Amino acid sequence: MRQFVYVGHEAPATADFSLDDLTGAGRMDLLARSVTAALLLSHDIRADTRVHLVLGGTFTVTFDGATLQGLNPDERSTAARVRAALAEREEAIGQIPVEVSPGVSLVRKGFEETLEAAAADGTVVHLQADGEPAPAVAPPANPVFVLSDHREFDEEERAVLEDIAGRRVSLGPNALHADHATVLAHNWVDTDGFDPGRY
């Protein structure tokens, strides 16, 4: 299982945002592109991948590739799925997930709780430009990749990552958009650490 945890610092935690201005909705455009980058292959869905979007520090929308149906590659339709999930926020009681459509659920959890739950099933990898170079590191069997949106992690989030993350890995010398880093992270695992013998 591969997991991706994305933190949307300014993304709305309600369904009250326009699909016509995803950039203005706390960079929902970037988060939606990250979801599709994590889950889609050419003509297929990565069934071994789960994506968690932490929104407003209070809710997490999860996309589970094993049961997900009908995910399209455009950011607007993915953002519409996020909006539909957030429309069910009043049904999210405690930390019991609400399934809003096949493979999409909403739970009342912030960053730390979401990361702890994901870490129970894998090794947390904080993707950061100043981490260990990925080609020098063997990918974990069940990675939990953690990325921020257009903002850096704040001090509290960095403290959580220091406590939970098993690795801090760099995918290259330049800071990348989360969706681009996602593709490289998949390739790192797909090719067993960029090993040309694997493909």
Characteristics:
Alpha/beta knot; globular; 28% helix
CATH fold field value: Alpha/beta knot
Number of domains: 1
Largest sheet: 8 strands, mixed
The CATH superfamily turns out to be SPOUT methyltransferase, trefoil knot domain
Beta-strand percentage range: 25-35%
* Individual helix count: 5
Spatial arrangement of strands, main beta sheet: 6-7-5-4-1-9-8-10
- Which CATH class applies here? Alpha Beta
Helix/strand class: alpha/beta
| Strand segment count | 10
How far from one another are the termini? 20 Å
Low-confidence sequence ranges: none
CATH architecture: 3-Layer(aba) Sandwich
What does this structure look like?
The structure is a single chain. The protein is an alpha/beta fold. The protein has one domain: 3-Layer(aba) Sandwich (Alpha/beta knot), CATH 3.40.1280. It is 28% helix and 27% strand. It contains 5 helices and 10 strands. The chain has helices at 28-39, 75-86, 111-119, 155-164, 178-190; strands at residues 2-8, 40-41, 44-45, 49-55, 59-64, 98-101, 104-107, 123-133, 143-148, 167-170. The strands form 2 sheets. Strands 6-7-5-4-1-9-8-10 form an 8-stranded mixed beta sheet, with helices on both faces. It has a two-stranded antiparallel ribbon with strand order 2-3. Helix 1 (28-39) packs parallel to helix 5. The longest helix is centred in the C-terminal third of the chain and has 13 residues, at 178-190. The relative contact order is 0.18. The model has no long low-confidence stretch (mean pLDDT 94).
